Amino acid sequence: MKKILLTGFVPFLNYSINPTEHIVKQLNEQTIGNYEVCGRVLPVDFEKSGKQIIKHFEETEPDVVLSLGLAAGNVKITPERIAINCNDGEADNRGSQKQDQRIVSDGPDGLFSTLPIRKLVNGLTDANLPAAISNTAGTYLCNHVMYTMLHQVKKEGKATRSGFVHIPASHELAILNPKLPSWSEQDLLRAVTVIIELLD
Amino acid sequence: MKKILLTGFVPFLNYSINPTEHIVKQLNEQTIGNYEVCGRVLPVDFEKSGKQIIKHFEETEPDVVLSLGLAAGNVKITPERIAINCNDGEADNRGSQKQDQRIVSDGPDGLFSTLPIRKLVNGLTDANLPAAISNTAGTYLCNHVMYTMLHQVKKEGKATRSGFVHIPASHELAILNPKLPSWSEQDLLRAVTVIIELLD
Amino acid sequence: MKKILLTGFVPFLNYSINPTEHIVKQLNEQTIGNYEVCGRVLPVDFEKSGKQIIKHFEETEPDVVLSLGLAAGNVKITPERIAINCNDGEADNRGSQKQDQRIVSDGPDGLFSTLPIRKLVNGLTDANLPAAISNTAGTYLCNHVMYTMLHQVKKEGKATRSGFVHIPASHELAILNPKLPSWSEQDLLRAVTVIIELLD
Amino acid sequence: MKKILLTGFVPFLNYSINPTEHIVKQLNEQTIGNYEVCGRVLPVDFEKSGKQIIKHFEETEPDVVLSLGLAAGNVKITPERIAINCNDGEADNRGSQKQDQRIVSDGPDGLFSTLPIRKLVNGLTDANLPAAISNTAGTYLCNHVMYTMLHQVKKEGKATRSGFVHIPASHELAILNPKLPSWSEQDLLRAVTVIIELLD
What we know:
Keywords (chains A, B, C, D): Cytoplasm, Hydrolase, Protease, Thiol protease
Largest interface: A-B, 20 and 20 residues
GO molecular function (chains A, B, C, D): pyroglutamyl-peptidase activity
Oligomer: homotetramer
CATH class of chain A: Alpha Beta
Function (chains A, B, C, D): Removes 5-oxoproline from various penultimate amino acid residues except L-proline.
Strand content of chain A: 15-25%
EC number (chains A, B, C, D): 3.4.19.3
Number of strands of chain A: 10
Active site (chains A, B, C, D): 80, 142
């Protein structure tokens, strides 16, 4: 049995629900496809989130790291192609705001996902779940965690595959933030399950 | 047992699937809440669709007429507030195109829905399904059918309540038309069921 | 020389600039095409705005009433096809909020614009300014003023043509509200000038 | 007098006008701020566009390379933060389509723009022109040209600053492709002029 570290985030900005938190808690300790799921919820915090995912990585020694994030406005499941070496955007949950700042001072500008993103998109679509590759994970905490993890694996010279997938808002969240496109939590949960089943 | 005439449409324009067609076929002859459902699929045709809904109305003698239409781009279920006395927009499935043309030459400019649209929105939201009142049903076949039916009921002096609800694309359709927001067919079907259950 | 009553609105909701206010002030007392412009700025207030536009109408005795409103999110100039007999939406500038309320208790559900909206759209497009007919003016103050004025003219049995045109945000406003599409004030001003020149 | 190589593209996909082509032709051989402008129009062609920009670079020996591209759907001027080592997306003007393919087989995954993108955004905003940093130039020809040029400069060890700026559709184009947000050509031209004036 292989192991997957599945991360989500707590709520942030004006989104009082983060569907990735629910998904991660619900799938924690479940077996999906070839994987035992280790679910962990990360803080929306530039100082802590990177350290925490690395700590979870060291503790769980997973074969795959799959990080999930909410992309408010997304109409599809979007595996991210690349993480970039940049912190920017709104203040995090602790009020810390970054602008045009490198995550790793001597790190490369960008790092491609090592998940099979094309296969994931095709497999989700086959399962009747709209999906597409995204070419930016932004410059906020999602990108921060994705870059941090990819850089760590590379630095350690490990074979662990790692990457990030953004998901749409849930219906529950869209009822509170009325302009957001949304999926049912059931659809979101099924999408993450399908993704894990598609991994070798 | 009361009766509801539930209408949907066939596919149109570049949308090769119309989720309202599937819903109407699936709910036909079912009993939901206090209603026996008479499901009928209408053509996307300025000449025929109005005549057909009136024919179905006369044959089924329903207590309520609920017409469904696809609103490609919608992120919610949207009961329509008003139908307007205007045919306009792209050509229909027979190639007939209208511009700024009255539906009923001496009919009023607008006719409000006689469904309890606020109650529907609140009830859908309570059922965790994003919903909002829409203030335009457009000027294409959806508005045409809504106006035609409301005008007919008024002309005949009947008490039948009548109105229109637009629904988002299904995941199936969004996979073919990649920019559309979408819901699973299951969510769409549940929304229509909830609406019928909310009717007195 | 004919006379046109041109109205705009003060800022509202979280839009701290209302480009229609600037346009109306700038065109006030100018002569455009066959028209002398009487520019008036209306409050965003369900109690007062209708009374004020009627007062301006009585004082100026115009041949045409053209009301302008900001449609945050619009990418074009959109002459409105219809006003509906409904107050709804967010609270106005005095904190008064309406829901599903008729504007005129015994008024018709909808009233078509009596401006030549198709001609305006074609003329704007010919002038290289994107334009389209809109089928809803919403249910907030814009629709309120449009309905009130159309109903008043009808009630008085006058020949005055009356209608509403929504415009996009200005660049100035979009800089403060970062997701809005916008035009330069110069383009917005040119659009309103073109509209007046198109009137007989 | 310094020299700037300013590139645009010919029309592509279903956009029969490319405003960057007009801008580049109009500013060619003009002096703006400290720069003499060398304007060149590139083909939308995965095989040729990279070779051509390098050829123009060698011939003109500029101090700065500024490439422009149309971002249909953009509501602002968006200097790009990063180019990524990937060709993907729709077929180019010669019918050649790429998927998940590296541009430079042994090149880095991403390369940051070496233009002062934050300064450009601030300066454009000060000039009342909405602007924001974009974190993805996509994976089509715009990104291809941006990556190719940044990689070439790096490979040659030169100090030339290089980067890419996406612009909204022009009103002219939006009239042909009706859902696009747009600016007047005059605003677009002013934006590019402001950018060049902001360069040291």
